[in-house]
Design brief:
With about 325 residues, this protein is mainly alpha-helical. Helix content is about 45%, strand content about 5%. It is built from twelve helices and six strands. The chain has helices at about 1-10, 15-35, 55-60, 65-85, 90-115, 125-140, 160-170, 175-190, 200-205, 210-215, 230-235, 275-280; strands spanning about 145-150, 150-155, 265, 270, 290-295, 300-305. A two-stranded antiparallel ribbon has the order 1-2. α5 (about 90-115) crosses α8 (about 175-190). The radius of gyration is 37 Å and the shape is globular.
Length: about 325
């Protein structure tokens, strides 16, 4: 799965779960821009413990600027597409809410412990959740090393490398929250949240209901089923070539070869000469005289030629 994640960086593919997250993020940004809401209305921080619990669910979809929105969407598409293809769309959206809520709660508690309220930083965006998914992927893979931009690095170090890259390139990212997100992803990968996890059977039942049934009917993106067999058929479709698509060479069966026959036979439209098989050395016709040559192991050689000519005189 980690190899598929690195492959998606070069060739991303949009899936239904990621499309739903992008749509909600754009809707929240449009609402914030149209009604000119304050910047901290949807972001998470110590204010969660003041009664603003809803911010634990809204901060991943909230972005301050349009540039931040585009960069966060790019990170989500590049880093999380393979994770959705490995667990299904329903479980991907469920884990998105689970990991984002746990990350936001732990960061709100850390922000509450700060003595200086002026140094408080509110968190928003999709970057923490993308890093959490990368951490889960590294815990479930069997690969010891991966390739990042052509460089071989330990798999366990990939979340921290992406942490450095996103912190440098993406504005309004809070480093402590991103570190907490990676730790939350590792904790989930180790099974610490197994009592909160959704089973495959439960996910298969939910995907038959709304709104997942609506996501399944969208044709421009790929919906990933929750069932393992259906997911394998969706991601690895069986190839059934039509007859005559590939050239086939016909060969004569060995039992039909008769070394005593010299007449060519036809097998499925292909000429089959048994004489070529029985006599690999071609015979040359004589021209009325006999030639006799002998080669010995010595350094020299001797040749005896005899010619017999008969003339009838009338």
């Amino acid at each position: 799965m980690i190899l598929q994640t690195l492959r998606d960086v070069a060739a991303p593919e949009l899936t239904s779960g990621i499309l739903a997250v992008i749509f909600i993020s754009c809707a929240v940004f449009a609402i914030k821009t149209y009604f000119t809401l304050t910047e901290a209305v949807f972001s998470v921080g110590a204010s969660v413990f003041d009664g603003h619990v809803y911010r634990l669910f809204t901060y991943p979809f909230y972005h301050k600027t349009f540039a931040q929105l585009l960069l966060n969407i790019a990170v989500l598409v590049l880093l999380c597409g393979s994770f959705e293809r490995s667990v299904g769309t329903v479980r991907f959206l469920f884990l998105f809410l689970l990991l984002s809520t746990c990350t936001g709660l732990w960061y709100a508690f850390l922000d509450l412990l700060q003595s200086d309220a002026t140094q408080s930083h509110h968190v928003e965006g999709l970057v923490p959740i993308a890093l959490a998914f990368i951490a889960v992927t590294t815990m479930h893979t069997r690969m010891a090393k991966g390739f990042l931009f052509g460089v071989s690095v330990p798999t366990i170090a990939l979340p921290w490398l992406f942490l450095i890259i996103t912190t440098i390139l993406i504005p309004h990212t809070v480093l402590p929250c991103n570190v907490i997100a990676i730790l939350i992803g590792w904790m989930y990968g180790k099974g610490w949240f197994s009592f909160l996890d959704m089973s495959e059977a439960r996910a298969s039942v939910l995907e038959k209901m709304m709104p997942f049934r609506f996501l399944r009917n969208i044709t421009c993106v790929q919906y990933i089923p929750a069932d393992t067999e259906e997911r394998r058929k969706t991601l690895l479709p069986q190839i059934n070539p039509t007859p005559g698509s590939y050239p086939v060479q016909a060969y004569a069966p060995l039992s039909s070869i008769n070394t005593t026959e010299t007449t060519p036979h036809m097998y499925e439209g292909w000429p089959n000469s048994t004489n070529a098989l029985s006599s690999p050395i071609p015979s040359f016709p004589t021209q009325g005289h006999g030639a006799e040559q002998s080669f010995g192991p010595s350094h020299g050689h001797s040749c005896n030629h005899s010619y017999n000519h008969s003339h009838d005189q009338l």
